[in-house]
Design brief:
Helix content: 25-40%
Oligomer: single chain
Keywords: Cell membrane, Endoplasmic reticulum, ER-Golgi transport, Golgi apparatus, Membrane, Postsynaptic cell membrane, Synapse, Transport
Largest sheet: 5 strands, antiparallel
Radius of gyration: 21 Å
InterPro entries: Longin-like_dom_sf, TRAPPC
Family: Belongs to the TRAPP small subunits family. TRAPPC4 subfamily.
Order of helices and strands: EEEEEEEHEHEEEHH
Number of strands: 11
Number of domains: 2
Main location: endoplasmic reticulum
Subcellular location: Endoplasmic reticulum; Golgi apparatus, cis-Golgi network; Golgi apparatus membrane; Postsynaptic cell membrane
CATH architecture of the largest domain: 2-Layer Sandwich
Length: 219
């Protein structure tokens, strides 16, 4: 079981804190000869597999590295177009690492804002008055848990579907936010959280939750 990441979103929908706690390793590196037996296409400033799943490489996986050097979107480490590089027989054999692309800071900001809107829509769609909005989204590989405070701050945790004690963890994160962000004289409300004590105590809380599940009294 694992806790993947934590997001804190202010009442206006802005991302003010994000922590990647655990990233599952799903990268696959293979050495290929020419011609490449995978169909690659540009997508969202990345080069992804469009056809030809094999050996752990799946459709939708992005090219992450070529010959051990990280790629930068659609370009190799030395600035060459990835598709042009892989289309040149002189560059083979070549080692390519595929995997799920890492979200950029801008993508995280956008997704936090989108969830903020979905949360409001969920509250409005409820047949009952006073709905709290979306508290959990479930997929086959993770669950997104959300806790909104009375002041509109949202705490979101992405975790393994089997992970227990997330409701208690969300309230523990709120407690840490209150103790180490709100009581920090240098912190301004609704602004990004940059506090070492907040980071330290949050990481400790995540480790405790992963190992022990629910928080007990005084934890």
């Amino acid at each position: 079981m694992a806790i993947f990441s934590v997001y804190v979103v202010n009442k206006a929908g802005g991302l003010i804190y994000q922590l990647d706690h655990y990233q599952p390793r799903a990268d696959t590196e293979k050495t290929f000869s020419f011609p490449l037996d995978l169909v690659l296409r540009p997508h969202d400033e990345r080069v992804v597999v469009a056809f030809g799943q094999r050996d752990g490489i799946r459709v939708g996986h992005a090219v992450l590295a070529i010959n051990g050097a990280e790629v930068n979107g659609r370009f190799t480490a030395d600035g060459k177009d990835v598709l042009e590089f892989l289309g040149n027989p002189a560059n083979y054999p070549v080692s390519i690492r595929f995997g799920r692309h890492r979200l950029s800071s801008n993508e995280k900001l956008m997704l936090a804002s989108m969830f903020h809107s979905l949360f409001a829509i969920g509250s409005q769609l409820s047949p009952e008055v006073g709905s709290s909005g979306i508290e959990m989204l479930e997929t086959d590989t993770f669950k997104l848990h959300c806790f909104q405070t009375l002041t509109g701050i949202k705490f979101m945790v992405l975790a393994d579907p089997r992970q227990t004690g997330i409701d208690a963890l969300l309230r523990k994160i709120y407690e840490i936010y209150s103790d180490f962000a709100l009581k920090n004289p240098f912190y301004s409300l609704e602004m990004p959280i940059r506090c070492e004590l907040f980071d330290q105590n949050l990481k400790l809380a995540l480790e405790v939750a992963e190992k022990a599940g629910p928080f007990g009294p005084g934890s």
